[in-house]
Structure formats: structure tokens, C-alpha cells
Amino acid sequence: MSLSSILSADAIDNAIKDCQAPDSFCPKKFFQICGLSKKSPAEVKKAFAIMDNDASGFIEEEELKFFLQRFSPGARVLTAAETKNFLSAADDDSDGKIGADEFQSLVLA
Ligand SMILES: [Ca+2]
């Protein structure tokens, strides 16, 4: 299972290109361009499971760093500042990781 089964390759490409410069990544904008924000809750849940690489039920900071590479293996890693911003945008209960519900409200909000 990969994200290309949920999103179109062109949309993924555009989203990755849009944040090619370090520190230009914005989660909301990224989800809009790649098309995930227009998907159903079930599809967003599937995308979450792909990003939760170790299947812990949460996306941890370590996994978040490699977020772009889940979309495209050749993409860059997120900078420390981007990872921190991403986490604080999604982590509603401040436990330091992103749960499926938190991910869904960030993507579909
Ligand atoms: Ca959390």
C-alpha cells in the first residue's frame, strides 16, 4: 500500500515541488495541493496508516521528519523547524505525537 494508490502522481509531484526549498513546507497547503484534503475520512485514515511507519497508532516526531519521503522516496527530509511546526499544528492534546483523529482534523479542516 502506498500513497500513490490514494493520490494522483501529478498532484504528489506538484505538492513536493511546492515545498522544495528548506523551511517552505506548510502542512495545510501541502494537503491541499496533493489532494488529500479532498479525500474521504476513510482515505485519510489509510494515508495515516502509511505514514505511521512502525504501526504504533501515532505519527511520532521521527516519522514526521520523513513525511515527504512517504509521498516520494526522492523528496527531502523536513527541517527541525518544519517538523516542530507540523507537530504543533496537529497535536491537539500536546502528547508530542499525532494520532489518527488529530491527523484527520488537520487534513480535512
Ligand atoms: Ca497527540
TrEMBL record:
Binding site for Ca(2+) 2: D91, D93, D95, K97, E102
Superkingdom in the source lineage: Eukaryota
SMART domains documented for this protein: EFh
SUPFAM superfamilies: EF-hand
EF-hand domain span: 39-74
Keyword terms: Calcium, Metal-binding, Repeat
One GO MF term attached to the UniProt entry: calcium ion binding
Binding-site residues for Ca(2+) 1, renumbered to this chain: D52, D54, S56, F58, E63
GO CC field: cytoplasm
Listed Gene3D superfamilies: EF-hand (1.10.238.10)
InterPro entries in the cross-refs: EF-hand-dom_pair, EF_Hand_1_Ca_BS, EF_hand_dom, Parvalbumin
Function noted in UniProt: In muscle, parvalbumin is thought to be involved in relaxation after contraction. It binds two calcium ions.
Family, similarity comment: Belongs to the parvalbumin family.
Name of the protein in its database record: Parvalbumin
Organism: Gadus morhua (Atlantic cod)
Organismal lineage: Eukaryota, Metazoa, Chordata, Craniata, Vertebrata
